[in-house]
Design brief:
Blueprint (H helix, E strand, L loop, with lengths): L1 E9 L4 H9 L10 H12 L27 E6 L2 E8 L5 H12 L11 E9 L4 H20 L8 E2 L6 H10 L6 E3 L5 H10 L2 H13 L2 E2 H8 L3 H13 L3 E8 L6 E5 L3 H4 L19 E8 L1 H7 L3 H13 L7 E7 L2 E9 L2 E8 L5 H13 L4 E6 L5 H13 L7 E4 L4 H28 L4 H6 L10 H9 L3
Parallel strand pairs: 13-14, 14-15
Antiparallel strand pairs: 1-4, 1-5, 2-3, 3-4, 6-11, 7-10, 8-9, 8-10, 11-12, 12-13
Length: 478
């Protein structure tokens, strides 16, 4: 995972004075300006007294950007983290124009208008405490800058959140319609999590479905129908009961006719009065003399998780939370105008929707899902099935993608064993794209392509092959 943060402080300072701030960092133990250090080294090797007279000629790094020089700012490195800093000013002077053009070229800040001041960004690996690293840099910058200019400097650093609340806006928009949208907030209580985990096993799922359809199942009958899979069934019965998905009950059976008479929660009830003395309606025996068979029925929790395969919603949501998606960014069962989305999440200002099927996903599912995807403006769409996505459904997705500009086929995940791995891969890809976009501006600013730094921090096999090239091809020339 890669993290990105931005802070900004209003501070009216010329580019020349700002360069003095940066020069003050040259002797810092941890945070040294990489581009300025490289310029100084270049000048020394060239036999020049300073680097001011030998600036790099970086021209048009991005198609049509108009950036014709290097901006004022620098980048700083520490293990697993890269910090960049720049001085934002309206382009009233030629020396301010480079930074202004670079900011307009940035995929992150292109449409953001900041007042004159200093912008700091950090990109870091997931195992780095990004807040600690950022605060450490800001403190070092303030101290070294003050020492360099010999005056008291005050910076009020304000975090910049560039993500728009897409999910909140979508729900507000839907609720302005005549029929308000319905949805539920996730409830990952311990009982539901245990139950969903048990039902992620196919034998357990099939057995609960069978009990739900029958209403009650005798253990002897269940085992007899499974043949040589008795051990698997006994294990499934135990797991369902331990998770509270089934209730153990006893069935009273007439010895003479084998007809079921009544069900009780415990065998002791049959032996206790007044039930023990009740006479069977099929034969002369009393209830206490009849046969007692052990069995199971589905509990309210089991019915709740089985209905509409709700267990799958709980199970997938648990995976999302484990992978770092806040529970507050997840909505269940968003229903509007008869169309329902199983899970919708907001992630880094993007909307992702999930279609869950505890069966084969067929062509009849593909068109409605694509409609929901377009209606809700989803940036990513996932189809997760415990079975397969049929060839016909894949063909429908392919036809829709080829016939509509900007539409891509959804991410298909077949089998629960692949869910966490595939979602993690997409999350890592999204983190990388965000990091690469964040690094466009400092790359243009210092004249070095920094995208390789972020890519190096992630395992190559965790990123789809197309992602590593995507941002670079959009914003840089090769």
């Amino acid at each position: 995972m890669l993290n990105v943060r931005y802070v900004y402080a209003e501070h009216d300072v010329s580019q020349g004075k700002f360069r003095q701030y940066i020069a003050g960092m040259l002797d810092h133990e941890t945070w040294r300006p990489a581009a300025l250090t490289a310029d100084r080294s270049f000048a020394q090797m060239a036999g020049l007294p300073d680097s001011e007279s030998i600036g790099p000629l970086n021209t048009r790094y991005r198609r049509g950007s108009g950036v014709t020089g290097r901006g004022t700012g620098d980048v700083f490195f520490r293990p697993g983290a890269l910090v960049f800093i720049t001085n934002v000013r309206e382009p009233r002077r030629p020396e301010d124009r480079f930074n202004y053009e670079i900011m307009e070229s940035s995929p992150v800040f292109g449409r953001v208008r900041l007042r004159e001041g200093i912008l700091v960004g950090i990109v870091s690996r997931g195992d780095v405490d990004i807040d600690e690293a950022l605060q450490g840099f800001l403190q070092a910058f303030e101290n070294q800058a003050e020492a360099r200019v010999d005056e008291k400097l005050e910076f009020d650093w304000t975090p910049i959140d560039l993500d728009s609340p897409r999910l909140e806006k979508l729900l507000e928009k839907l609720n302005t319609d005549t029929a308000a949208a319905r949805f539920s907030t996730p409830d990952l209580n311990d009982e539901a999590l245990r139950g969903a985990s048990v039902l992620s096993g196919k034998p357990n799922r099939e057995l609960l479905r069978e009990l739900s359809e029958a209403g009650f199942g005798r253990v002897a009958d269940i085992l007899a129908r499974r043949g040589d899979k008795k051990e698997e069934v006994q294990s499934a019965l135990a797991e369902l009961a331990q998770a509270g998905l089934t209730h153990a009950e006893v069935l009273l059976v007439c010895k003479a006719t084998s007809a079921p008479l009544a069900r009780f929660s415990e065998a002791e009830e049959v032996k206790s009065e007044p039930i023990a003395s009740v006479r069977c309606g099929k034969c002369p025996r009393t209830y206490s003399q009849e046969l007692v068979s052990e069995g199971y029925s589905v509990s309210p929790l089991g019915r709740s998780l089985a209905q509409g395969s709700h267990w799958m919603t709980v199970w997938v949501t648990s995976r999302l939370v484990d992978l770092g998606i806040p529970l507050t960014s997840i909505v269940w069962n968003l229903e509007d105008s008869g169309e329902e989305v199983d899970i919708i999440i907001e992630f880094m200002g993007k909307l992702w929707i999930f279609e869950l099927k505890d069966r084969e996903f067929g062509p009849g599912d593909a068109h409605p899902f694509n409609y929901r995807r377009v209606r809700y403006g989803a940036d990513e769409a996932f189809v997760i099935t415990t079975d397969k996505v049929s060839a016909d459904a894949r063909r429908v997705f392919g036809d829709l993608a080829s016939g509509r500009a900007g539409t891509t086929t959804p991410i298909i995940i077949e089998g629960l064993e692949n869910v966490e791995k595939e979602i993690r891969k997409r999350l890592e890809a999204a983190y990388l794209i965000r990091a690469l976009e964040a690094l466009v501006m400092p790359s243009l600013m210092v004249g070095y392509k920094l995208d390789a730094v972020a890519a190096e921090w992630l395992p190559s096999n965790s990123i789809p092959s197309s992602v590593a090239r995507r941002v670079s091809e959009m914003y840089y020339y090769y």
